[in-house]
Amino acid sequence: MTTTPTAPPTDVADRATAGFRHRYGGEPAGRWAAPGRVNLIGEHTDYNEGFVLPFALPLRTVVAAAPRDDERWTVWSELDADPVEFGPAEADRPGRVTGWAAYVAGVVWALRAAGHRVPGARLAVASDVPVGSGLSSSAAVEAAVLAALVELGRLDLPTDRWPRLAQRAENDYVGAPTGIMDQSAVIRGRAGHALFLDCRTEDVQQIPFDLQAAGLAMLVVDSRAPHRHADGEYAARRKSCEQAAEALGVPALRDVDVADLDAALAKLPDDETRRRVRHVVTEDRRVLDTVALLRAGRVGDIGPLLTASHASMRDDFEITVPEVDTAVDAALAAGAYGARMTGGGFGGCVLALVDADRAQAVADAVTAAYAERGFAAPGTRTVLPAGGAARLD
Ligand code: GLA
Questions:
Q1: How far apart (Å, rounded) are the C-alpha atoms in residues 1 and 265?
Q2: Of 199, 213, 140, which Cα lies nearest the Cα of 164?
Q3: Of the four, 35, 37, 305, 343, which is 20 to 30 A from 180 by CA?
């Protein structure tokens, strides 16, 4: 007799549950989800204590979890055949757990470092957020794991404190010197809204971002560009911003007003630093201008700000690569109202604001431009702002 193997479930929550049952036996106590994100505008402004305007994506990471009696954590992910297990000794020493499981260990570490009693747990992780595309797959894992552990351990930790904890997991355990944007977006995002975040005060305002009502669509193009030296370049940009703030005698570049930009630039030692500062200061302004337009219901008018942001990242901050520049140029030539790279840079995704009924034509134009340049075909999809981390069921 032959048996037909059952196909693995396609829904991400079902995959997490199936993974849990298969690895650990029994049923999870619950399932918690967190999304990926894109940033509408405000790039490399978060660690300069400025403004960002990201939104959460309808692509999610789901963690199925159950408590265990001892103080140990077992994590299985679709990315790997075997689970990873660690205890307090590994969780308390940043860097001891490596690879994808470091994001989980980092959350345990950050919670413990903040004085919380973290419950031992078995966790199974499934994700629809592509890894390495700049859509914050790591923040999605951090947020979903955090949501699971907070609830399983009945920890006294309001949601507005989650982003800093998840950021600490990434900064201090994994060792990536990122800002607060990604974790805020995936935790505090709301469907139909972009998240206007002041990265100094962590004040959040939900800005209605109704693309459909405006007859528009947001096309996300995965540039598929290999991330070239992204980590080192990110750290270098951050360092030069911090040095510039020090040279200008301000706590952070957020404190340089765009009206005083020329005077500030004149005080800086070299052209490269001047261009880095100009990007950050003008980008903060573009975020504020974008928010004002969205508040006025003028969604279609934000296009030029998106495109100006891209030019600033390309020419002043120097974080784009030929693939993303090609995608932006091709989208604009095909009629997009605006287009820009989103995220840390050196690859990742491009956003293009398009008429809803032109989305496919613009995607095709980008694909054709890629083929002409001999680049590997890009990924294309349209997205709407979705909700942040939450318990499922
Ligand atoms: C990455 C980081 C964020 C932010 C962006 C650039 O996504 O994780 O903190 O700095 O780059 O805006």
A1: 78
A2: 199
A3: 305
Ligand 1 mean position, distance from CA 115 (Å): 27
Query: Which positions are catalytic?
Result: 182
Can you say whether the dihedral through the CA atoms of 120, 122, 127, 130 is positive or negative?
positive
Pocket of ligand 1 (CB under 6 A): 39, 43-44, 46-47, 178-179, 181-182, 343-344
| d(CA 238, ligand 1 centre) in Å | 10
Q: How far apart are CA 43 and CA 4, in angstroms?
A: 50
Ligand 1, from 49, 181, 240, 346: best to mutate by most atoms within 8 Å of Cβ?
181
281 burial type by CB count under 10 A (0-12 exposed, 13-18 middle, 19+ buried): buried
pLDDT tens digit sequence for 79-103:
898 999 999 999 999 999 999 999 9
Task: Please count the CA atoms within 13 angstroms of the CA of 59 that sit on its side-chain side.
Answer: 21
User: Any alpha helices (H) in the chain, and if so which ranges?
Assistant: 12-24, 88-91, 101-113, 137-152, 162-168, 181-188, 230-248, 261-266, 271-295, 303-315, 322-333, 359-373
Lookup: tokens for 189 = 């995002």
Using alpha carbons, select from 237, 150, 149, 135 the residue that is nearest to residue 186. Answer: 135
Q: How many CB atoms lie within 10 A of CB 154?
A: 9
Q: Measured in angstroms, how far is the CA atom of residue 19 from the centroid of ligand 1?
A: 31
- Domains of the chain, each with CATH number or no CATH: 12-205 (3.30.230.10), 211-383 (3.30.70.890)
Non-local CB neighbours of 6 within 8 Å, separated by 6+ positions? none
